[in-house]
Design a protein that fits this description.
The chain is built from five helices and 13 strands. It is α+β, with helices and mostly antiparallel strands. It folds into two domains: 6-101, Gyrase A, domain 2 (2-Layer Sandwich); 104-210, 2,3-Dihydroxybiphenyl 1,2-Dioxygenase, domain 1 (Roll), CATH 3.10.180.10. The strands form two sheets. An eight-stranded mixed beta sheet has the order 7-8-9-6-10-13-12-11. Strands 1, 2, 3, 4 and 5 form a five-stranded antiparallel beta sheet that branches.
Amino acid sequence: MEKLSSAQIINAGLADWRKLARALHGRFLTGDFAGGLAFVTAVAEAAEEANHHPDVTLTYPWVDLKLISHDAGGLTQRDLNLAGRISEIARERGIAAEPRAVTGLELALDTADLAAVGPFWAAVLAGSPAALQGDDVVDPTGQLPLLWFQHTDADETPRQRFHLDLWIPPDVADERIRTAVAAGGRVVDDSQAPAFTVLADPEGNKVCVCTFLDR
């Protein structure tokens, strides 16, 4: 299937879901473990019918779901179709969604020599240099946040090696930035907003508040 554009995803009108870096994310407030398990079972049946399967995290008060078409490298119509069906299942069971609560965290490391440092970080984080996939270290077990390498010039100064990329829904970004600034932070660079806004804490440690818009 063809990979969808940001406009197509927005126009799909999936109120229960938000796109973060690459995937669609949904949080459903099941309230207890048994209710969550029953919901996941119903979602699994729908996924089998569609031959398309979400990543699922079942906790006591809610269920988190992530949809992506790995073969297309992004979102396709089958993701939107299954997301809509999952929302129907939730409504049938009286389960509310909380899409503004979804987040994703990535680590970013500046480097001028990916070939030198990439295999090391893949080996120490994921147990094998083979976990280096392009510019990313991907943990096949899903336990660690993705580490991606931001290419920089060798003589670039001043240079911060690590920073965080926080992926949040676009309708949350402005509020989150205001809250962080009120808590002592500052905006370093908002020239690329809403794609990303760079914030810093009082000691200069940086985080990028990222959305999927304008990318």
